[in-house]
Amino acid sequence: MTDQQIIERINTSLAEEFELDLQDMTSEANLFTDLGLDSLDLVDLVIVLEGAFGFKIREQETVRQIRTLEDIHRFVIDKKRSLERTA
Amino acid sequence: MSLKRVVITGMGAVSPFGVGVGTLFEALLAGRSAVRSVPELAALGGLRTRVAALVPELDGKEIPRKFRRSMSNMSIFAVLASQEALAQAGLKEAEWQDGRTGVAIGSTIGSTRATEKFFTDFFLDRSLERMKSTLFFQIMNHSCAANVAHTFGISGRLLAPSAACATGCQAVGFAAEAIALGKQERMLCGGADEFHPLTAGTFDVMEAASIGYNDRPQLTPRPFDRRRDGVVCAEGAGILLLESLDAARLRGAPILAEVVGFATLSDPTSIANPSAKAIVTCMRAALDDAGLAPAEVGYVNAHATATEQGDIAEGEAIAALFGDRVPVSSLKGHLGHAMAASGSLELIASVQMLAHGCLIPTRNLEEPDPACGALYHLRHQEAAARPALLKNNFALGGVNSSIVVRSMA
């Protein structure tokens, strides 16, 4: 998958789960203040990403530092690339 | 201690006929049935019934996702019905959020659909890793009450009675008592439930589900009829806004009826089959609470689900207390049995009967079963002769409840 394909899959998965408008999902959008998510949503966000990409990230400290959509994009791309290198 | 008088100032319904009290009452007046074939029930091994009364597809998306994410259908029904009740009462947001408004809304159990969803996934590998955080809020027993309170920002007491088919009636009774005691100024109250094949299965296992009219769904259930063959499961929500009479008068609210009596009791003679004696005791206690004699009641809205034994016990009890002078009908023939919602939905319809001065007969009652006692069965619409009515609801587990309301017009 290219980085762009990863970003698109993240955005469509989150848009479906949290009923977000794709137009609002700019990279700099803050999950909490701009997109209206909260701590419960963050738990489900992890499950959605795990389901979409087939990896386990729940215990990773970096997940707790996610604030913007770009944080998610970067985190998932890094995770995917890291898994590809160790495969 | 003096008790406050309690009145109904708002009502809301989501029924198998659709959204709204008007929709419900119009269908009842027209004598329609909401029961239909549900062929997908054939997919369940051992389940013989193929009929149910389901809420037509509705758009829950008018409820913001923030609140809707913790809701299964039963909570969506309860929220939409609550919205209608609050609107009819003309209550302002600041008033229902002032801490003196509470919620008493129950369901039979939490969402079976959500429970099924969880366990279907869990048993793949016995892992919790895919469990969404909001699933629990749909499964918990107080899901409807909590979701209503959160959606509307209600901060008074929160009750979630759970007594199967007596839930809706109990919720209204407990809410009325909270207001009468001065603990709350108003209460949103009632019952809600959503259909799941296992609910129908519960009755089928006990030989109490209707299975003989699968090809003629509109002819079942048949309360008090000689050819009745059991319960038809339904779903929905019936929510009432109760207020102290003083509070309602102070804000010039429309008063639909007064809740004048309530009783609920345990019938320990059988966990499955009601006894006429305990039903008489319950109805008499509700009338005593209201300070009314049986002759002052103008209508009995029966629980009558069309089971063999339940209808006989209730019919005998009504005949023993009221004789054959008080008109009796059951609305299960139109609506099916909406479980926890049945008590409050039928109470709402009964209040509408008082308001319109028109009593609705039992649908599908063609040949009254003499075993159900010599009752004044309503076979056609009749004018309401007296302003007070008594409503019964009974539940598996041996729970009886009766409520008495009176028109104030």
How is this structure best described in words?
The complex is a heterodimer of chains A (87) and B (409). Chain A is mostly helical. Chain A has helices at 3-18, 39-53, 69-86. Chain A is globular and about 35 Å long. By secondary structure, chain B is of the alpha/beta class. Chain B is 34% helix and 20% strand. The longest helix of chain B is centred in the N-terminal third of the chain and has 17 residues, at 73-89. The model of chain B has no long low-confidence stretch (mean pLDDT 97). The chains are: A mainly alpha (87), B alpha/beta (409). Chain A binds chain B through residues 18-19, 36, 38, 40-41, 43-44, 47, 50-51, 56, 58, and chain B through 65-66, 69, 129-134.
Short précis:
The complex is a heterodimer of chains A (87) and B (409). With 87 residues, chain A is mainly alpha-helical.
- Chain oligomer state: heterodimer
Tell me the name of the CATH homologous superfamily of chain A.
ACP-like
The percentage of residues in β strands of chain B lies in 15-25%
Helix proportion of chain B: 25-40%
Largest interface by Cβ-Cβ < 8 Å: A-B, 13 and 9 residues
Overall geometry of chain A: globular
Number of beta strands of chain B:
16
